Here is the input.
Amino acid sequence: NAGVTQTPKFQVLKTGQSMTLQCAQDMNHEYMSWYRQDPGMGLRLIHYSVGAGITDQGEVPNGYNVSRSTTEDFPLRLLSAAPSQTSVYFCASSYTGATDTQYFGPGTRLTVL
Amino acid sequence: GENVEQHPSTLSVQEGDSAVIKCTYSDSASNYFPWYKQELGKGPQLIIDIRSNVGEKKDQRIAVTLNKTAKHFSLHITETQPEDSAVYFCAASRGAAGNKLTFGGGTRVLVKP
Here is the structure.
């Protein structure tokens, strides 16, 4: 099993550009989530999904969109990048929900100029 | 929503000594409390978790204690080794009632040989 994979590993954007961070898992997990990690602020939940076709907002959803058309994939879209979105983004998955072991991907480091 | 505070933000210990990290949470409905370890350049990985019907749990050199009345839980690492150097995160969830995991700000632990 590859586990949770994320692409790209690094990305630099200009303010106003859009892009999609990819996340995939091959463990047949129902629950997937996106976090951003900023220094001193831990991991903050952006969006999560409890299964294909179902998504919900986390703590910091503004400026981000998600969709879950398959069990395996959970892409995160930045609609119009802003410098405040400079961060490291982690995707995670688990069997059923927030109270299961979360398996994290390796992260995407995003810089918005 | 839930708020998780974690202290200290950095911790330096001598190899062989013990390390203690403390977290408090705000939502009395939270019932699941995991701890994650993040090594440099990687995603967080679960090291131990505790549920609200248990007061203490041990796994070799690590232990977690939970005080639901005080809304407080702690991670204890005994006989620290250089490979314990990492960032540690506590988290809390109210499970199916919210299905979100809220993380503390993290503790950078340095074990000096």
User: Anything to note?
Assistant: Chain A touches chain B at residues 4, 31, 33, 35, 40-45, 48, 50, 56, 58-59, 90, 92, 97-99, 101-102, 104-107 (CB under 8 Å).
